[in-house]
């Protein structure tokens, strides 16, 4: 039995296989936050069902699991840049990260390989040398106080920044011992480097451990002030807390819900919050794949080596434009009749960039662009090197926008792609999907959606005809709350923008990104609150981002061992 299809796996992440698991020498002997992690139980997206599930919790504080989280590569890079004045990438390339539930920060897939441990050691050594050679702000100790006093001051001040909290007495003693051994056997400069290296390879730096400060109800802990400062800064800025957050933590002013919200609003109002938006969409839309696209030079001679990177940047800039100048709504993200281009990309699209020499907002035609759905990079990354892919494009809508998981193909089905035929359109070549019973069950969900994008070729450019033939972009949405026919991606985008399923799917993605895990039954009230926020705000995504810091899941954690 054959079926002209393409990717035939359930809607899970490409490359989501776990990396080899080893325990770094500097890993904690206990895992304070991981002990409360539990297998996630998916919850329904239907707001009514979530409300019912929340009611069943009886109004108790329910934070859900709190797994131990490691710094992602982007967080490590930004942390090194903020603390030590130098990004780690200047010295070492970390191994590729593993995606889980769509995001690289997922705690369940953050395994530590031997290669990663080696890279951490290499980065720590190189960063320590750079830091010690230029650490003027820690070199102001009065020499008359003695070397011991100055080294203690150095360890205390730097340790608080690297560990993102004051050092404990045992930690200070261990680091002082490292320094003393270095001075005795080598010299003060190398001793200082050894201390910095030790800190940068510690679990307190590489991970974001959380013990909680006080029990607010049986088995439920309120986070400590420095733990909360870290949660806020890494969620919104992807970086360590700033001076204002540390001051608030030191004054114990991050314990009340209102205090946390005030700090969240401050951080979200800072341009550094753009990192959160960029990282979310980079992972969710798999933009790393866009920059790696290759196309047939014979069929798409204008694509070349530079266009993929421009397509990736186009989507990044489009998202930022929607959030900063385009209203920031989910509807705008899906339906905005413009994109972002520079002169080279404008030439590729055949658009007018108004003579600009940098990136500007532009429209390539009133009937061509419909937000994310028709971004050149999105269209090209869900296609093949020589042809489009209605299946991949339909699957993108079903999986990424509607959070629908499609079943695998029946056993014995041979997977193949219809061969190119200069006398047929893609719709005609893929007609077997609707006639073959082995294919129709699954493809009735994907193909009628994906065929609506056929005016965008495999390189992401708009086309009027295919093989000289008229292109039929009619389609139909089924098994959704906005079911019905549509004509082209603009009508499809309008339908999706009005869908409650799309809205709740967006909440699900943001939940998984913000809390670095999947949903569990304990998260019913958190998800209900986030869904209500997005709905009541008219789909305002910045409001959703702020609401992520005002939930039980963010404000509390289960006690270690629960």
How would you characterize the overall build of this protein?
By secondary structure, the protein is mainly alpha-helical. The protein folds into 2 domains: 1-14 and 40-66 and 302-538, no CATH class; 73-206, no CATH class. Helices cover 47% and strands 6% of the residues. The protein has 25 helices and 11 strands. It has helices spanning 47-56, 73-84, 114-133, 147-163, 169-185, 188-200, 203-206, 225-236, 243-250, 257-268, 274-284, 287-290, 307-325, 330-335, 343-349, 376-381, 390-401, 426-429, 432-435, 437-450, 488-497, 500-515, 524-536, 541-547, 552-555; strands at 2-4, 214-217, 220-222, 339-341, 360-362, 414-416, 465-466, 469-470, 474-477, 484-487, 556-558. It has a 3-stranded antiparallel beta sheet. A two-stranded parallel ribbon has the order 1-6. Strand 9 and strand 10 (484-487) form a beta hairpin. Helix 11 crosses helix 13. The longest helix has 20 residues, at 114-133. The radius of gyration is 26 Å and the shape is globular. It starts with a strand and ends with a strand. The model is unreliable at 4-42 (pLDDT under 50).
